[in-house]
Amino acid sequence: MSDIRKAYTQYLETKAAVTALVTATRIRPQFLPQNDTEPVIVVRIISGESDQHLTGGCGSAQTRMQIDCFADDPTEAYAVREAVRVSTPPSCGAQWGVGDDLVTVTDLAHENFGERDEYPIDGSSRPRCVAHFDLVVQHHEAVPA
């Protein structure tokens, strides 16, 4: 079964507009360690559901992911978020990932743009600047036998 978060992370690693601002090793699934250096992109799954018909799964699902772009200042965080957004156009049939993590996208939407400061828990006084948005992805999935 494919992991859409891993597939999307692999997809972003191939986009020059993104990797010009954030090295491929700084695109992380799920979480960001407290003392990590910036800029960094973190991909989190917020929710997901499999579409059903009367006899079970139909091979289609929807996943909402939050894309957090961390940087030292707001301008840099916004630039990273914009590079990610532009590199992920709404397109039917796009494929993310490789091998077992390949995901075929049938539709997507960019939603809930925002920004925040994330204050550290390590005793330092410098907050992280975060620009974020949600990516709502309709995609194919394997149907359980």
Write a structural description.
- There is one protein chain.
- The chain is elongated.
- The mean pLDDT is about 85.
- The longest helix is centred in the middle third of the chain and has 13 residues.
- A hairpin with a 2-residue loop joins strand 2 and strand 3.
- The chain contains three helices and six strands.
- The chain is an alpha+beta fold.
- The chain has one domain: 2-Layer Sandwich (Alpha-Beta Plaits).
- It has a six-stranded mixed beta sheet.
- Helices cover about 20% and strands about 45% of the residues.
Order of helices and strands: HHEEEHEEE
**Rg computed from alpha carbons, rounded to a whole number of angstroms:** 16 Å
| CA-based shape | elongated
The portion of residues assigned to helices is: 10-25%
How many separate domains make up the residues? Answer: 1
Low-confidence stretches: none
Q: CATH top level?
A: Alpha Beta
Task: Give a quick summary of the entry.
The chain is built from three helices and six strands. The protein is of the alpha+beta class and 145 residues long. The chain has a single domain (4-140), classed as Alpha-Beta Plaits, CATH 3.30.70.
Descriptive terms for the model:
six-stranded mixed β-sheet, alpha+beta, single chain, Alpha-Beta Plaits, 145 residues
Topology at a glance:
Elements: H1 4-12, H2 16-19, E1 27-29, E2 40-53, E3 56-71, H3 74-86, E4 95-96, E5 103-118, E6 128-140
Parallel strand pairs: 1-2
Antiparallel strand pairs: 2-3, 3-6, 4-5, 5-6
